[in-house]
Design goal:
The complex is a heterotrimer. Chain A is α/β, with parallel strands linked by helices. Chain A has two domains: about 230 residues, P-loop containing nucleotide triphosphate hydrolases (Rossmann fold, 3-Layer(aba) Sandwich), CATH 3.40.50; about 240 residues, P-loop containing nucleotide triphosphate hydrolases (Rossmann fold), CATH 3.40.50.300. Helix content of chain A is about 30%, strand content about 25%. Chain B has a domain of about 250 residues. Chain B is built from 17 helices and no strands. Chains in contact: A-B, A-C, B-C. Chains A and B meet through helix 1, helix 10, helix 11 and strand 20 of A and helix 10, helix 11 and helix 12 of B.
Chain lengths: ~500, ~400, ~425
């Protein structure tokens, strides 16, 4: 199948997620769509799959312009999708998942023809060497096998073009290698493949052609022979555009000492594995890495938000592991969570109410169990001005603010206490440029005041701009801790788990 | 329905400046709170319209005149008008002011009846409303009322104390019993994640049979020598005194309700605990990240909710029906409270007015039943329709062919 | 400040997980043994207990069994204790307690209990089980309706409303047409009507399903009470005197001792129930329709991505579920008594809801749960006739208590369909 996307534009409100994107995919080729998180790759593919409707542009298949109202149309046209979040029913068997929506029945009672579905699964599974048991429950299968079920699902519907949306984000390196093999096999059988990713190594390994997307636009094409550095600079954009006015730091003693930290979730998955590092007073340690490599769990462990934590986190000599979140906050830790709408704000609360969220137990806003509304309002008025929150007044609901202003409310709340540690996760995600600058200044000011700062960011620009030292995480482990002036190509490489020779782990 | 283009199902939310949609869990409360006034008025109108149809359809004269509607349609419409207006006029006479008597003190009596019926609705409505503010659904009103009523009732008939101590002690017993019974649901949710809706429904029946058991044992609640599941009547020292003299039935319960409105208002809007309750209700994740113990808050909320609903039970046993504890003491109030809380948008003042409104319906309904022979159950229908229509303003707008506001 | 590995770390995605065998079953068994033993120790009733198994028209008559009450109870309880020991032994070996063990235990325990509770009296075994089946009819229909709706992702708190409206419609239609079967049909339609309101608000307008359900219960109570008083009572002769559905024994099957009278000398509604259970169980697990229903209840987005119309599927299922639940309503006004009365369902809808949860959202298990609850309530009736020392209220409380324990995860683990209660908005 030959697929042509022509000038696809998709807007969400005022945001242009896809801006006149054009793309051609030939049969028997693996076409990589490379871009950072949020560059608009998945949106584009959801348009192709009929889940979104493009505001402008057209989809052409084998020379014919098509219009998809729903996924059913796209599937009928021979497009299959391996979703980033698997579209599988966990409590169904493999065969049931594969047949769903495409069921055949036997007998007068309309009995489901599970036998033929099993055969189909087995047949496809054998053809590609998948080793998938059609009668296994999906929820019992490892993630890598679940992904193969997704592939079988698409192939069983005779898909000629397969879209893989960030397929390796959830895979182990071995599983990733196996997936690469499967993709090559599919290609050789004549299928067209779109491979969405932000991982350079994988791209160079399997791609026939590469299209790079940045901020919703195609920024160029590249050959698979391009170097990591070339690809990285296309994907991330020109080096540091953000200028942060940050002087030489004056560092004190080790303030935060993390030793052999390990975080496990309820299902037994290890997310953070044996982390040991220190942050000095007045120092910004930036954690770099692709999303999902343990950053979230690291910050949550620090804040007492994870249940199964072992090892030690000492702040100025006081142990934080085992403390409740409230006790951690009492130790003067400030926390800017990575998703302000989930963990940072109560949307139905006013700005003023949100400003006291982590101080609902005692002075200055609470006395004898009662709220001190006057104090809070005065405080809120001050912070509104000080942090340049653009809102009508302090009674505006936080849910009605723009992302940048929401984030300023969170930052204002966290920085308005005397801190002994600041944990800032993705402090500028989804924030406008003006607010980014402002928030960066605040973080630098905090550092200059002698507070140790743990900054987590997947934006390399931000990491480089703010860090005194950079710690790169990969799969829950430290790849290396390097100086802030480390070249970004080298950092990018480390983010894929490779440790350069001169880096001491 | 084209009003939702972006939802939580969006796989990769663009790095947007967009205003976040309220989460699914709160969308109903949000919608009720944000529902515009016009849709609200129309919802009430629609509910009464359905009520009118029911009145007309079951009226004898209307059915007779319908037999010859082709010949004399005016008879038919006159009959419909008479039936419907008669019914609603009776409701007015029963709920607010009896226009058929000259003596003002008698004429105003219905208003005091309305207040009497409103008191438990307000108290229980507050109990449900407090739960809503923490995004908790308290359907356990019946059980909480029963246990509170039983506890208050026991203190009321079994102990001999001076009124100054007896009455407060009885009230306190009911309050604590209701709170503890409510607290079970909160504790189970906090500890095991058991859904409070299922737990409170089931606890209603457990409470019912517990009280029934107690009412069948004379060492517990049953009146000695009786075979009926009923306790002894309350001692005079434990009965809520009449507030407007013996001429009216209105007792101290309404004062209790007003005090509770003020207390809950203070709790929710002026206290740290209430702040945390609202934070947990608004966004439990953010509350947790800010050091608030979500599980403990659930337990506390359910204790408070149970205590408030319990006061409604106390109001019944020590005020409205002082002849003794029975398993009917909740009189459907536990469920009415849900509609009261929804109509009052879970705000104390809103609940006050919703309780007064529904109390009026009840008082008026009884008059309608006695004077026009129309079943008081009509009130239940109108009440539940109001809540349903209020919950879906787009439906109301569609019925009246108004443009849908939500499509921006 | 170093990690030991010098190559890129390959972190195992999963730790080895230890198979966790629940300790709850053996503990529960032990508690029940100790509980009954204490009761036996502290009660002073002495005498014989008679079990009557035979009924008229049996192919052959089984004689009554008369045993010394306390001694039998102790012997049976000893058997229970042994089984409990076996359960603990298996726990130590990381094995689960098998179903046969629990079933045998239940039989022994129940016999022990009855031997004691009915000392000096006669236990009508047929009546005990047969009555349980009859009492369970509305519970099973209601539970099946609940299972269907929730499997499609729509929580139905309004089963009670569907039963009540079904009972009302059955009485009115059966009276006015003179046909009990027309009444049964009307009951189903009444259930559909309630379901359509649930669907309109919950699926069509995304109103919280629990709120719609709760309000629907109040609405239907109001409606049926209103019309009962205004229309049915004055016209009781024509509108509220339905022909009653009477028992129709099935030839041969009905004559098998014990089983016959319990299962096959029932009303046609019971036979309809057998068929419904089988059809629902088959349809839900073995047909295309069932697969799709379960898919939209578990993961509507996934269903959507393979071209299944989520809300259309939900609508159809909810209406069907209404019909099934409504059927159960006919029991109250056509079987239990002849004619409708105010709020005559008396909370059966909530027991049905309990059966849905205790039955883990499975039609067959939910049916068994409903039968168990029916048994509990019939046992209570039988015991109070015998004059047993057990307070009837505690027997009646049992279904609700068991359900609370179930949702709290104390008895087994019940997991609702993943998308239960969540409205679905397509793009």
């Amino acid at each position: 199948m030959r697929l042509v996307l022509r000038d696809i534009t998709k807007r969400f409100g005022s945001v242009v997620a896809n801006d006149r994107i054009s793309l051609t995919v030939e049969p028997g080729e693996i076409h990589c769509l490379l871009g950072e998180n949020g560059a608009g790759k998945s949106t584009l593919m959801n348009v192709l799959y009929g889940l979104y409707h493009a505001d402008e542009g057209e989809i052409e298949i084998d020379g014919e312009v098509r219009r998809f109202v729903g996924p059913g149309d796209a599937m009928a046209a021979g497009i299959g999708m391996v979703h980033q979040h698997f579209m599988l029913i966990p409590v169904f068997t493999v065969a049931e998942n594969v047949m769903l929506g495409n069921e055949s029945t036997t007998g007068p009672l309309g009995r489901l023809d599970l036998e033929s579905a099993r055969e189909r699964v087995t047949e496809i599974s054998e053809r590609f060497g998948f080793h998938v048991n059609p009668d296994a429950l999906v929820e019992d299968l490892p993630v890598g096998v679940q992904q193969r079920v997704e592939i079988i699902k698409a192939l069983s519907r005779d898909a000629e073009l397969l879209v893989f949306d960030e397929p390796t984000a959830v895979l182990t390196p071995q599983e990733t290698d196996e997936l690469m093999g499967i993709m090559r096999q599919l290609k050789e059988s004549g299928k067209a493949i779109v491979f969405i990713t932000h991982k350079l190594r994988e791209v160079r390994e399997v791609a026939d052609r590469i299209t790079v997307i940045r901020l919703g636009k195609v920024v160029g094409e590249a050959e698979p022979t391009a170097t990591n550095a070339e690809l990285a600079s296309m994907m991330v954009g020109r080096p540091v555009e953000l200028v942060v006015d940050k002087g030489e730091g004056s560092f004190g003693d080790d303030a935060l000492v993390v030793d052999n930290l390990r975080v496990i979730d309820q299902t037994g998955h290890v997310h953070v594995d044996g982390l040991s590092f220190t942050i000095r007073a007045g120092e910004v340690l930036a954690v770099a890495g692709v999303q999902g490599n343990g950053q979230t769990e690291l910050t949550e462990a620090l804040m007492g938000l994870q249940d199964h934590v072992t090892g030690s986190i000492k702040l100025n000599g006081k142990e934080l592991v085992g403390r409740s979140t409230r006790k951690v906050l009492d130790a003067d830790v400030g926390f800017i969570p990575e998703d302000r709408q989930v963990d940072g704000l109560v949307g139905e609360f006013t700005i003023a109410e949100n400003l006291m969220l982590n101080r609902s137990f005692e002075m200055p806003f609470v006395r004898h169990g009662g709220l001190r509304i006057g104090t809070l309002r005065e405080f809120a008025e001050d912070k509104l001005a000080e942090y340049d929150v653009r809102a009508r007044d302090i009674d505006t609901l936080a849910g009605n603010l723009s992302g940048g202003n929401q984030q300023k409310v969170v930052v204002a709340r966290e920085l308005s206490r005397d801190l002994d540690l600041l944990v800032a996760a993705q402090p500028t995600r989804g924030v406008d440029v003006g607010s980014i600058e402002f928030i960066h200044k605040q973080i630098v000011a905090t550092r200059d005041a002698g507070v140790p700062v743990l900054l987590v960011s997947t934006e390399l620009d931000e990491v480089v701009a703010l860090a005194d030292r950079i710690m790169v995480l990969y799969r829950g482990r430290i790849v290396g801790i390097v100086p802030a002036d480390t070249p970004r190509e080298k950092l990018g490489l480390m983010m894929t788990g490779e440790r350069p020779k001169d880096v001491v782990a | 329905m084209n009003d939702t283009t972006t939802t939580e199902q969006e796989p990769t939310p663009p790095p947007a400046e967009e205003v976040e949609q309220p989460s699914e869990a709160h969308s109903l409360l949000y919608r009720i709170a944000a529902g515009d006034a016009l849709a609200g008025v129309l919802a009430v109108f629609l509910a009464f319209l359905v009520g009118s149809v029911m009145i007309a359809a079951t009226d004898e004269t209307v059915r007779e005149t319908a037999g010859y509607i082709a010949a004399r349609p005016s008879d038919f419409f006159q009959a419909v008008w008479d039936a419907v207006s008669g019914a609603y006029a009776a409701m007015f006479r029963g709920a607010i002011y009896n226009t058929r008597v000259d003596d003002f003190q008698t004429a105003i009596r219905p208003l005091t009846e309305t207040l009497k019926y409103a008191a438990p609705l307000i108290l229980a409505g507050l109990g449900v409303g407090v739960g809503f503010r923490a995004a908790l659904f308290n359907i356990g009103g019946r059980g909480q009322m029963l246990l509170a009523g039983a506890a208050a009732g026991w203190v009321g008939f079994a102990l001999d104390l001076p009124a100054v101590i007896h009455l407060p002690l009885a009230i306190l017993a009911g309050l604590i019993a209701g709170g503890l019974w409510g607290g079970i649901a909160g504790l189970l949710k906090a500890r095991t994640g058991a859904h409070e809706v299922i737990v409170t429904i089931m606890l209603n029946y457990v409470a019912y049979y517990l009280v029934l058991y107690a009412l069948s044992r004379d060492f517990l609640l049953q009146a000695p020598g009786s075979n009926n599941p009923q306790s002894l009547p309350m001692k005079q020292s434990a009965i809520l005194p009449k507030v407007l003299g013996d001429r009216y039935n209105l007792h101290l319960g309404i004062i209790l309700a007003l005090v509770a409105v003020a207390a809950v208002w203070w709790l929710l809007n002026r206290s740290a605990l209430g702040y945390r309750i609202r934070a947990v209700g608004g966004n439990p994740h953010a509350a947790r990240a800010a050091g608030i113990n979500v599980g403990r808050t659930y337990t506390t909320v359910f204790f408070i909710a149970g205590a408030l609903v319990g006061l409604a039970g106390v109001n019944q046993v020590l005020g409205t029906v002082t002849s003794g504890v029975t398993t009917d003491l909740d009189a459907g109030i536990g469920f009415d409270a849900i509609t009261v809380a929804l109509l009052g948008r879970s705000r104390p003042l809103g609940i006050l007015f919703a309780g007064l409104l529904f109390g009026g319906f009840k008082a008026g309904g009884f008059t309608m039943q006695t004077s026009e022979n129309i079943s008081v159950d009509l009130v239940l229908v109108v009440q539940s329709l109001i809540v349903l229509f209020l919950a879906a303003p787009p439906l109301v707008r569609a019925i009246f062919r108004l443009p849908n506001k939500e499509v921006a | 400040m170093s990690t030991t590995a010098d190559t890129p770390a390959t972190v195992p995605d999963e730790l080895g997980q230890v198979a966790v065998v629940s300790r709850k079953t053996p503990i529960l068994l032990a508690v029940l043994v100790v509980g009954l033993a204490l009761v036996l120790l502290f009660s002073d009733s002495v005498g014989e207990t008679t079990f009557r198994v035979a009924s008229r028209n049996d192919l052959f008559q089984i004689p009554d069994i008369t045993v010394p009450g306390r001694a039998t109870a102790w012997v049976m309880l000893a058997g229970c204790a042994l089984l409990t020991g076996e359960s603990f032994r298996r726990l130590l070996n990381q094995q689960k307690t098998p179903l046969w063990l629990v079933a045998t235990y239940a039989l022994l325990w129940m016999t022990a209990f009855l031997s004691w509770a009915a000392i000096g009296g006669r236990v009508p075994v047929v009546g005990l089980f047969g009555g349980a089946v009859a009492l369970a009819v509305p519970l099973v229909f209601g539970a099946l309706g609940g299972v269907l709706g929730e499997r499609a992702g729509v929580v139905n708190i309004a089963i009670e409303a569907q039963l009540l409206f079904g009972a009302f419609a059955a009485a009115v239609v059966a009276s006015s047409t003179g046909s009990a079967w027309a009444g049964v049909l009307a009951a189903a339609l009444a259930g559909v009507l309630v379901a359509s309101v649930l669907g309109l608000f919950a699926i069509g307008y995304f109103v919280d399903q629990i709120i719609v359900g709760v309000v629907l219960n109040v609405l239907v109570i109001g409606l049926t009470n209103f019309f009962f008083r205004q229309v049915l009572t004055p016209n009781a002769e024509t509108l509220n005197s339905p022909e009653r559905l009477s028992a129709v024994p099935i030839p041969l099957l009905g004559q098998i001792p014990l089983i016959g009278p319990v299962l096959f000398r029932q009303t046609p509604l019971v036979y309809l129930l057998y068929v419904t259970v089988a059809v629902v169980a088959f349809a839900l697990y073995r047909t295309r329709w069932g697969l799709r229903v379960r898919a939209v209840g578990e993961h509507p987005k996934a269903a959507d991505t393979v071209g299944i119309k989520v809300n259309r599927t939900r609508w159809r299922t909810v209406l069907l579920a209404g019909a099934v639940a409504g059927l159960g309503g006919a029991y109250f006004s056509l079987v239990a008594v002849s004619g409708f009365n105010r709020e005559m369902t008396g909370g059966a809808g909530f027991i049905a809801l309990a059966a849905v949860i205790f039955g883990k959202w499975d039609p067959v298990r939910a049916t068994l749960a409903a039968l168990l609850f029916g048994f509990a309530s019939n046992l209570q009736g039988v015991l109070s006739v015998i004059g047993s020392p057990v307070p009837s209220q505690f027997m009646l409380m049992l279904p609700y208590l068991v359900t609370i324990l179930a949702v709290a995860g104390l008895v087994g683990r019940s997991r609702p369909p993943a998308a239960d209660g969540q409205p679905y908005r397509s793009q």
